[in-house]
Amino acid sequence: MSVVGADSVGLLLRNRGFTGLLFYRLLAMLSYQIVAVTVGWQIYQITRDALALGLIGLTEVVPYFCFALFAGYAVDHLPRRKLGMFACLGLLLTTLMLAGVASGVLPAFGTKMIFVAIALNGVVRAFLGPVYNALFARVLPREQFARGAGIGSVVMQVGLVAGPALGGLLIAWQGLATTYLVAAAFAAAASIAIISLRVTEPALPADRAPVFKSIGEGLRFVFNNQVVLGAQALDMFSVLFGGAVALLPAFIHDILHYGPEALGILRAAPAAGAVLVGLWFARHPPKRNAGRLLLFAVAGFGLCIIGFALSRQLWLSVAMLLLSGMCDGVSVVLRSTILQLATPDHLRGRVSSINGIFIGSSNELGAFESGVAARLLGLVPSVVFGGCMTLAVVAATARLAPKLRRLDLRDLQ
Predict the structure, then answer these.
(1) Is residue 22 part of a domain?
(2) pLDDT score, position 1
(3) Cβ contacts of residue 351 below 8 Å, gap of 6+?
(4) Is there a domain that residue 120 lies in?
(5) Is residue 203 part of a domain?
(6) How many domains does the chain have?
(7) Alpha helices in 224-359 (DSSP H)
(8) What is the pLDDT of residues 206-243, one digit of tens each?
(9) Do the Cβ atoms of 64 and 364 come closer than 8 Å?
(10) SS3 per residue for 100-124
(11) CATH no. for residue 12?
C-alpha cells in the first residue's frame, strides 16, 4: 500500500459528511440483507419450490419499477436527507410487518402477507439508492470520486457480507421473528444516521418542471450517452442472466445438503470478494483502460457462476462465489465512478433512479428468471445457462459500445 494512497483514504475517512453517509448506507444495507436472506429461507421452507424464490424478486421489482423514476424526480426537487429518513422508516415498518407474520401476531394467509411486505419494500428501496448517490457528490470533490466509490463499495459489500451471515445465524439460533426485529433496529438506526448527516444540500428549484418532462430529461441524458448506457446495460443483463443468489436456498438444501448457517456463508461470499477489490481500489483508483477492465471483470463473473453451478463441495462453491464477488466488485467501482463523473449535479437523482432500474432491479428480475429457468431446465443447468448468457452479453456490449470499450476515466474528469 502506498503512503499517498493511505493518506488519501485517511483524509476521506476524516470527512464527517462522507463517513455519515457511509453509516447510512451500511445500516440500511444490513437491514435489507437480513430481510432478504430471512424471507428466502422462510418462503422455501413453506413452499419447497424454486419458482417461489424467483417470485420474491418479481414481487419486489414490479413496485420498484413503478416508483423508481418518480423517486429520482423527488430526490432532485425535495430535501434529500428527509427523503432518506422516510425511506428508512418505511423499511422499518415493512420489517415489523414481517416480524408480526413470523410471530403469529399478524395473519399470514399462506405466504400472501409475506409477499405484500416484499412489494412494499420495493417501493421503499426506490428511494434509498438515489438519495445516497445524490448526497455522495455533495460530500466529496470530483477528484475524490474514484477513491470514494472504492470505499463506498467496501461499505456496501460489508453490509452484503455481514447481513446474510448475521441473518443465517439469527434464523438458526433465535428464529424468524427475532431476526426480523434485528433488521428493524438497523432500519431505525439508518433513519437517524441520514437525518443527522452534515451536508449542504443544493437550493431547491423555485420553479419545478412538470414531473414527466423532468423525468424525460433524465432518460434522454442516459440514452444519449453511450458510456453510461453501455455500462448500465452490461451490468443489468449480466446480473439478469448470471445471478444465482436467489437459488442458494435450493442449492443448500438439494445439492450441498447443509442448513441455514451455510446459506449465510454462501450469501456472504460474493460480498467478501467485492470487499477485497474495494479496498484495493480505495488505495489505487482505476484510471487507464477502465472500459476493457469492466468487460473482463463481467466475463470473469460469468465463468465463476458456471463454476459454482458445477460444484458439489461447499468449500468450492464458496470459492467460486468469492471470485465472482471480486469480479463484480470491479464492475461496481467502475460503474459508480463513471456515473458520478458523467452526471450533472441537477440530474443526479433522476439518473441514479434510472441506474437503479438497470442495476438494482436486475437482481430481482434475475431472481425471477432464475426461478423460471430452474423450473424449466433444472437447478444446475439453469445456472450454467445463465453464466453462458453473461459471456454472450459481454461480447455483444464490446461490439455495440466501442466508446465504453475504449474508455479511460481521465477523459471524464
Answers:
(1) yes
(2) 41
(3) 72, 218, 221, 222, 228, 339, 343
(4) yes
(5) no
(6) 1
(7) 226-242, 248-250, 260-283, 290-310, 314-342, 348-358
(8) 666 677 788 888 888 888 888 888 888 887 777 777 76
(9) yes
(10) HHHHCCCCCCCCHHHHHHHHHHHHH
(11) 1.20.1250.20
